[in-house]
Structures are given as C-alpha cells and as structure tokens.
Specification:
0% strand; transmembrane helix; Inner membrane transporter RhtA; mainly alpha; globular; 14 helices; EmrE-like
Length: 293
Amino acid sequence: MKPDVTGSPRLDRAAEAVPPHAWFGVSAIFHYLGPSFAVLLFPVLGVLGIAWLRIATAALVFAPITRPWNTIREADPGTRWLLIGLGACLAVMNTSFYLALDRLPMSLVAAMEFVGTIGVALYGLRTRRNLLALVMTVIGVLILIDVKWASDPLGLFWAALNATLFVGYIILGHKASEGGASRGVERLGAAMSIAFIMLMPVGFMAAAQAFGMPLVILAGMGVGICSSVIPYACDQLAMSRLPRASFALLLALLPASATIIAAIVLVQIPTLQDLLGIALVMLGIAVHRPAGI
C-alpha cells in the first residue's frame, strides 16, 4: 500500500471542516498579492528571474512535505502523464503571466484569465439560478475589461497564452484533486518539482544575478510562497469538494481581487466602473449554488 506522505487525515479534515468557498477566498487573495509584489521586483530580478524563483521556492517548500520523488516513482503511467502535464502547465503559465504583467495592467490580465474559464463554467451548470449567476459574473468581468484592449500585441499574446493555460490548470488541477485534498496536494508538490526542472534552463541565470543580494532573494521567495504555495494548496482543498464548473465560476473573483490588490500595492486605482464590475462579480458568486447544495 502506498504510504501516506502528506498527513492526509489532517488535510482532509481541514478541507471538510472549512467551506470550500473560504479556501477559494484565500486563494483569490494570494493569487495576485504575490504577483503584485513580483512586479516591484522585475527591475532587479527580471521577469524570467522572478518566474524561476517563484517556482523554485514552491518546489522547495512542497518537497519535504509531499516527497515528490515518491509520488512520481510510485504513480501509474496515467498519473505520471497528469503530473508532467500539470508541471508543464504551471511552468509555462506562470512565466507567460509575468511576461504579460510586465506590459499590461494586472486587472486586464486577470480578466482575460477568467474569459478562458467561461466554457468550463458553462459545462456542468444545470439550473437557471446558476446560469443567472454566470451571466452576472460575465457582465461584471466585461465591465472590468471595459471591452477595450491594450495596444501592446506582445503583451496580449502572453496574456492570452496565460489565459489558455489557466484553463488547463483548472482541468488538470481538478483531476489531481480526485481522491481527496491530501492526494491533490501531494500531486501538486510533484508537479511543482517537474515545473522547476523545466524552468531551470530559462530563468536560473537571470535569478543568479541576485544571489549576492539576500534581501532580494528573500523577497523573491516570499513571492513564491504567496503566489504558488498558498493559493495552489488552497485550490486543491477547494477543488476536492467543488464540481469543476462551480470552481470555474468562482474564478470570476480573480479579476475583482486583482483590481483591489493592484490598487493597494501598485497604486492602480479602480474607477467607479471597475467597482461596478466587481459588485456584479460578487453578486454572481453569491447567487451561484454548487450541485448538491
């Protein structure tokens, strides 16, 4: 029998004791809190350097807890392909996300992330109430986008690539969560190690330039914990209890949280129109009910 390497009783009890929406709320906050600090480090570490340090930190934190080498060695072929796919998705998604943030406002990049999840949210919606919730959240996100695109085609390309891979993250992450929250976190740790190996030749040299600056490295590691450890672990705790369509709809919170956090950290002040969009998104989330509730 495969040993339990993640202390599953505690993780599974935590996932059951706390409403899944609460876990997602924590994830939504940290999903953009870390990147907002990362933007401040771009001039020092560079985009690729901070992307590599983010993944490296997450892999380092997860390794002693999840023992990814055991997960990969003992996984069946199908699970190994899942881990490789999720690892590749995390590596490219996080890098393209930072490359987009280097050129576009955070609220726009976040809104584009949600656009790709609409199809996932539509699949599995079975009630008029949930369809109404989806309509309200989509209108709210469109207001946040303001249906106007930046004049930076390269930035939009990276944002579109990030949004596409974000859908892949939802599908693969939800698949990884099958079997319980602890199993999902275990597989997440293995996928993060794979992502770290994939990004090694891309961002290591950029990050290495700051190895003589301990405070900068610590700040970069803080970005990794805020961006990849806390939110992705909370995602697994939420995914283990929510249908995929419900989780995808909750992702509408991300543009709203990105707008608020960008205003606080990056002084990207939202307009009244932005606040209206956030209100509609919040209302849509309040109206929605997962299957079985």
